[in-house]
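Dear colleague,

Thank you for sharing your sequence with our group. We've completed the structure prediction you requested, and as agreed, I am returning the results in plain text so they can be pasted directly into your records. Please verify that the sequence below matches your submission; if there's any discrepancy, let me know and we will rerun it promptly.
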Amino acid sequence: MDFPLSDPNGSSLELVAFLPRRWRLSSFHVAVLGVGFAVLCGCAPKPMIAYSVDTPPLILVPASAAGVVDGRSRFREIYCAVTDERGPDMPDYRPCEEALVRLENEPPPAGAPVELGASRSPLKILYVPGFTTQCVKGIIDFQGGIDDHLARFGHEVGLLEVEALSSSARNAKIIRDAVMSMPDPKEGMRLVLVGYSKGAPDILEAVAAYPELQQRVSAVVSFAGAVGGSPVANTVKQSTLNLLQHLPGAECDPGDEGGLESLKPEMRKRWYANHRLPESIRYYSVITYPDADHLSSFLKSGYDDLSQVDSRNDGQLIFYDQLIPGSVLLGYVNADHWAIAVPINRNNPFIASTFVDKNAFPREVLAEAVVRFIEEDLNRGK
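Please find the predicted structure tokens below.
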């Protein structure tokens, strides 16, 4: 879960007064907790991306011109088949057409059958979380039902924890060491790294910097990934982020204090200008593209700030900044930045009923559809 924060203001701290009594600690902890949920608040009207010559040449083009493969048609076919098969008994059920956003020029489905049983070639999936995740463990339970759901079909799912406030370069080394220290996977089981938010650039830096990973990693998925960074990172102070260490139950330290810098658009664009992603790995992108009815109230200030650049954002990231160059575009999801990956609505009803009020999303269905697409695609490329 990413929390690129602005400095806390009065409105953000007022929300803390409504927290359950067990969370009402010292006044210092209350102030820090306010910071923890003061997501993207109160930014000044100055440009979110300032004038600068410290940038490589850039161009914004349609995805197809950036080497992106359009997989939306097949992904929608798979997603809808999973939705219909699992039915409304699945948590946070939402009809297929309400869950996926149909942008211009999406090809029609081919009508190919979708395999919905046990996997014939199971995957080992490691999930790399976003910025500040370790800092909010005491407030939000990140354990969802995705691992159990995918295990029903033979897949293995695990969490690869990185440092909450550290740079992508430092976390890339952590990812490398974790993957290389793992025992060899079961015969035929391929490794897939899934990066949520800042977890995506952390993974991309790892596979580009450490050639040994290219022998182990078959695929990388950007899940609302901060691939191109976020203009919001230009409005935040590191000193504000460091306060998150004092949240109740926090398990984070400043690390190298480079996480915020790694999220700045100019830093991400410069990195891509100087690094090439290994071609031996397959890349996939799942993008959040919520409408106004599916944006939690506490992300709306971030949405408004980012709308100075582009209103097509999820409260923390603009839609085109989530796409890995040269990846397979799976689809656009009608969910905000938290709803796609963080099950706040299932384990914290108070927060979900107050300011994270649009958090419900069928995450198990989405995860199964993504995994089935990847398995099918990798098998085709054998």
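Summary note from our side: Strands lie at 69-70, 100-101, 123-128, 156-159, 190-196, 217-223, 282-288, 328-333.

Kind regards,
the structure core
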